[in-house]
Amino acid sequence: MFDSFPDIKTDQEEQEVFRRERIEKFFTVSEITRQIRTSLEYNFSNISILGEISNLRKPGSGHVYLTLKDKGSQLQAVVFRNIASRIKFELKDGMEVISSGSVTVYEPRGQYQLIINKIEPKGIGALQLAFQQLKEKLEKEGLFDQTHKKPIPFIPQKIGIVTSPTGAAIKDILNIIDRRFANVEILLYPVRVQGEGAAQEIAEAIMELNNLSDIDVIIAGRGGGSLEDLWAFNEEVVARSIYNSRIPVISAVGHEIDITIADLVADKRALTPSEAGELVVPRKDLLLDMMEKLNTRLLQSLTGKLRLTREKLLRIANSYAMKQPFDRLRRWQQRLDEFAQRLNTNIAHALNTERERLSGIAGKLESLSPLNVLKRGYTITTRLEDNKSLREAKGLNKGDKIKTKLSKGSTISAILSIES
Amino acid sequence: MKKPNFETSLKELEEIVEQLETSDLALDETLAKYEKGIKIYKQCCQILEKAEKKINILLKNSHGNTRTEEFNLKKSDDMESSSNED
Known about the structure:
With 420 residues, chain A is of the alpha/beta class. Chain A contains 13 helices and 13 strands. Chain A is rod-shaped and about 250 Å long. In chain B, a hairpin with a 5-residue loop joins strand 1 and strand 2.
C-alpha cells in the first residue's frame, strides 16, 4: 500500500525536511506550550496582582488553589504548601488580596496560572487581619469571658515565669518583685519569645507549669517589639493554653499599646512586664507598716479600755450614792461640833452674865456693908452690959454705959440725957 | 499545703481593732478580743517573713528531663531592645 503513495513522508521525516530547509511550518502542542510558558515566565515574573479570591480550594495536599478575579477577567492561581502553611490569616472567598509571584503555564493542561509566593489582604496588613480573625473566633467561643478569669493570689507561694531568660522582660519583672517583696519563690521556664516555633514553646511551658503542684500564679510575656516580634502571643495555641490553665495567668507582652490575644485571654493583663511585677506581689513594707499600726491600735485600745474602766470605777466610788452614808456621818459630826461650840459659847456667856450679876450684887453688898456705913460716918452703938446693938433710945437710962464703934476705933461713954 | 490566707487574716485583725475602738465591750470580752488580735497579728508576721527568696530556672535536656538550678540575671548589653530576643 505504501508503494502507491511514494510522496508521503512520516512526521519525523517531514520535520527533518523542514528543519533542513530551516522553515518551521508548525509547532507541536508541547512545543508551543513550552514556548508560551517561557514567554510568560520571562515577562511576568515577580509581579503583584490585585484581585478577589474565588473558588478557593484547600485539598489535603496542603497546596491551596484559587481563582483571582475582577469584573472583567479571572486568573488561576496556586499557593504551594510551604508558602500556604506560613500565611497567618485565613483566606476566604470574596477577600480582596494582593498576590505576588510569577506567572507560568501548567503544561499538562495548557493552563496559565500565577504561582503565589506572597499574599496579603488589601488595605490591611496580613498580621492585622489574622489578629482580627482569631480575635473574633475566640471571642465567639468565649475565651475572653470575664467570668472565666481567675483571681490572682494576694501573696503567691511560687511564681512561674514564661519568658526569655535573656530578654528585657525578665529583668524588669525580677527587679520589681525584688523591690516589693523580696522573699518569694520564682521558677523561670525559659522559652523563645519570637520566631518559628516560639508559640508552641510558650504554650507547652504554660501547660508544664500547670503540672507542678506548688505554682500558684504564672506570668507569660516578653519585651516590646513590632507586631511580627510579638506574634507568638497572638497565636491560637498560646491562647488555648492560657485559657485551659488552672493556674491564673498574667500576660505581660510589650508595651501598653500592644494588645495581643494572650492579653485578652489572660486572667489579668499587665501593660508592661514591670506592671506584672506589681500585680503579682504586694508591697511588703506597706503591709508591715499597716500591721504595726494595727498592733499599736490594738494595744492602745486595750490600755484605753482599762483606763476608762478604772475611771468609771473611781467615779462610782466617788459618787454621791456611795459617799452618802459618810456624808451623813460627817454632817452629824459637824452638827455635834457646832453644838459643842455653841454650848461652850453659851456657857461662857452664861458664866459671864452670872459673874456680872454676882459682882453687881457684890457691889451692892459691899455698899451695904456696915463697915462702909461706918466709913460714911455712922457709928454702931451697943449697950456695954449685954453688947446689944441699940437702935432706939427707948429703954435706956441716964448713966447707962454704952460702947460706940466708929470707923476706926471705939469709945465707951455714959449717957448724959435722953431725948426722944 | 494550706496557709492561713493573709488577706482574710488581715481583714479579721482590722475588724477586731475596729470593735475594740468603737464598741463598748465588757472588760473580759475586750481581753479575749485583744488576745485573738495579737494571735492573728503574729500569724500575719509569720506569713510575711516565712518565705525564702529563691529564683530558679527550669532546664530541659534533649531527653526531656528537667532539672532546676539557681537563676542569675546575666548582664546583657542591650536592655530594652526586643529584637535581640532569642
